[in-house]
Design a protein that fits this description.
This protein is an all-alpha fold and 88 residues long. It has a domain of 50 residues. 48% of the residues lie in helices and 0% in strands. It has four helices and no strands. Helix 2 crosses helix 3. It is elongated and about 65 Å long. The relative contact order is 0.10.
C-alpha cells in the first residue's frame, strides 16, 4: 500500500545534511532548508552523532508558559454584559 504522500522526497546526501546542520542555528532552520520534518532531522543528527560525527548541539528552545490568570481576566472582559458566568 502506498503512503498518502504525493510528493516524492529526494534523498539528502550525508555531506549536504552535515553542512546544513553545522551552518544553521536551530533544528527548525535545518528542517526548512532540507524540506524535512524537524523530528526527522533531529533523529538523523542523533544517529550521525552515535556514529562519531561531531554535529553541533542546538540550545534548547525555551517556551514561556502563559499567565493563566491574566488570560482568564481577558476572557471575562470579552463576555457580554450581564453574563452569569461564574469562576470555578
Amino acid at each position: 500500500m502506498k503512503s498518502k504522500r504525493t510528493v516524492e522526497t529526494t534523498p539528502i546526501p550525508p555531506k549536504q545534511f552535515i553542512k546544513v546542520w553545522q551552518e544553521s542555528t536551530s533544528v527548525a532552520e535545518v528542517a526548512v532548508k532540507l524540506r524535512r520534518k524537524k523530528n526527522a532531522c533531529r533523529v538523523r543528527a542523533f544517529r550521525y552523532r552515535k556514529l562519531g560525527v561531531p554535529l553541533k548541539e542546538f540550545p534548547p528552545v525555551e517556551i514561556k508558559l502563559p499567565d493563566w490568570s491574566e488570560l482568564a481576566e481577558y476572557a471575562r472582559s470579552l463576555l457580554p454584559e450581564g453574563s452569569d458566568e461564574e469562576e470555578e
